[in-house]
Amino acid sequence: MTQVTPINALPEDSISSFDPLLTPESTASALNVTTGTLAKWRSTGKHHIPFLKLGTGNRAAIRYEHSAVEDFKARCRANGSGEVQNAK
């Protein structure tokens, strides 16, 4: 059996670098889109928002790192589309 370490027992520097994971529902809300739109972006790769798939099959949990969502929002502010711009 795997032993789980409580978060309050972790070294302080590892806690401060912890990036919260967001559900598709909270991510969609933060981006003002529907969960269906978010799912379409995942399946097509549009906007290149990294996500984690925890588990396998249809019941796998999808999560987004908070920093990835914030990076996407910053790209939207910078170029208006959220698309990754190729270096020229």
Briefly summarize what is shown:
The protein has 88 residues and is α+β, with helices and mostly antiparallel strands. It contains 4 helices and 3 strands; from the N terminus they run αβααββα. The mean pLDDT is 82.
Keywords for this entry:
3 strands, Arc Repressor Mutant, subunit A, 88 residues, three-stranded antiparallel sheet, alpha+beta
Description:
The chain has a 3-stranded antiparallel β-sheet with strand order 1-3-2. It has helices at 12-16, 24-31, 35-44, 66-79; strands spanning 21-22, 52-54, 61-65. The chain is α+β, with helices and mostly antiparallel strands. The chain is globular and about 45 Å long. The longest helix is centred in the C-terminal third of the chain and has 14 residues, at 66-79. The protein has a domain at 19-79: Winged helix-like DNA-binding domain superfamily/Winged helix DNA-binding domain (Arc Repressor Mutant, subunit A).
Q: Termini separation (Å)? A: 52 Å
3D shape: globular
User: What structural class do helix, strand and pairing data support?
Assistant: alpha+beta
Helix percent band: 40-55%
